[in-house]
Structure formats: C-alpha cells, structure tokens
UniProtKB/TrEMBL annotation:
It comes from Haloactinomyces albus. This is Histidine triad (HIT) family protein. A motif (Histidine triad motif) lies at residues 102-106. One of its GO terms (molecular function) is catalytic activity. The active site is at 104 (tele-amp-histidine intermediate). Signal peptide: none annotated. Residues 9-118 form the HIT domain. InterPro entries: Histidine_triad_CS, Histidine_triad_HIT, HIT-like, HIT-like_sf. CDD domains: PKCI_related.
Length: 123
C-alpha cells in the first residue's frame, strides 16, 4: 500500500467514511478493533494527525506518543487483559511489516503472546 493510499484509509476511518468498531475516540486519537485480529484483544490506536511512523511521531509530538500508551493501558484494563498481560507494538517501515504509513499502535492481549520477539534472529 502506498503512503497516500494508507493515509486515506486511516483518514477515512477517522472521518467516519469507512466503518470501524471504535473503542475510543478522543480529540487526538482514535482506537479501533483490528479487522484481522491476531489476538482476542487487538486494537489499533492512531493519532488523528498523520505521522508516517513512530519515530516521526516521537520527534514531532512526544506528548501525543505518551497519550497513545496511556489510552492503550486504559483499553487493556477495560478489555480485561491488563492483569494477565498485553503487548504494545509499532511496526516501523516495510521490513518490520508496516503496511499503513499512518502511525498506529497495536494493542494485543487475551492469550499468551510468546514467540513474536523470542528466539534467535535469522541470518
């Protein structure tokens, strides 16, 4: 997906043009259920202003970055996964699996998540 296609996807969700299961909607962030969940709880938290990736967001608006994590914690609590554990994850650029170039934080929980980052790095 190109940068412009990906931008329009999230912007259209934020604008309400594409249906999504909204979990939270604040002045600065929208949180939606992933349409292809990788765990029982899989929520995407995206700033309403487009930043290409987490590095760009951290450099330009660290307060907004902190808000993403604060909201992720609240959602984990309300989904009942905070106590058992959850994972927060940014994919940054293509080799890491980023396909939507509008930064979004993945919140995953509700089952054991071992294996995603465990084990040796392939050569």
């Amino acid at each position: 997906m190109s940068d412009s296609d990906a931008e329009s996807l999230f912007q259209r969700i934020i604008a309400g043009e594409i249906p999504a299961e909204v979990v939270r909607d604040t002045d600065h962030v929208i949180a939606i259920r992933d349409v292809n969940p990788q765990a029982p709880t899989h929520v995407l938290l995206a700033p309403k202003v487009r930043y290409r990736n987490a590095t760009e967001l951290a450099a330009q608006d660290p307060t907004l970055l902190a808000e993403l994590f604060r909201l992720a914690g609240e959602i984990a609590e309300s989904d009942g996964v905070a106590e058992s554990g959850y994972r927060t994850l940014f994919n940054t650029n293509a080799d890491a699996g980023q396909t939507i170039f509008h930064v979004h934080l993945h919140l995953l929980g509700g089952r054991p998540l071992g294996g995603l980052v465990d084990g040796p790095v392939p050569e």
